[in-house]
Specification:
Structural class: mainly alpha
Distance between the termini: 21 Å
Helix content: over 70%
Strand content: under 5%
Largest sheet: none
Order of helices and strands: HHHH
Shape: elongated
Radius of gyration: 16 Å
Number of helices: 4
Length: 129
């Protein structure tokens, strides 16, 4: 089976992660902070936005991959993938804005957790039936 859908959303999610990583690297270089956050709240916020993506995106992408490999309808996989990318982008933007845009943060997490939940429940149902 050739994977046609998950690679698109994995690539888009990776680009979001790279953008978040670049924001951390650029801030560290500009402010000469090599290790940790040095008590800098702006750096800590950038680091947490990047780390949050690193914490949630891999599991969501794994579930998306397994959903596609399980033969789920392409539309369902696209909806889950789009929800993940939109959720990760919304969370990152809302979290790293000053002041934070809580509604974007909340929508981003809701979409991310929805993808994880639907993927887990769908795979569990598929496996048990």
């Amino acid at each position: 089976m050739t994977l046609a859908i998950t690679p698109i959303y994995a690539a888009l999610t990776a680009l979001i992660f790279l953008a978040l990583s670049w924001r951390v690297i650029r801030y560290r270089r500009t402010n000469l902070i090599s290790l940790g956050d040095n008590g800098d709240k702006n750096l800590l916020k950038r680091m947490r936005a990047q780390a949050n993506c690193a914490e949630y995106a891999p599991l969501a992408l794994l579930l998306l991959l397994l959903t596609e490999l399980s033969g789920a309808p392409a539309l369902a996989v696209h909806i889950m993938g789009a929800a993940l990318v939109i959720g990760r982008a919304a969370h990152a933007f809302g979290f790293s804005s000053t002041p934070q845009r809580m509604i974007l943060r909340q929508i981003g997490m809701l979409l991310t957790l929805l993808v994880i939940s639907l993927g887990a429940l769908g795979l569990l149902g598929h496996g048990l039936l």
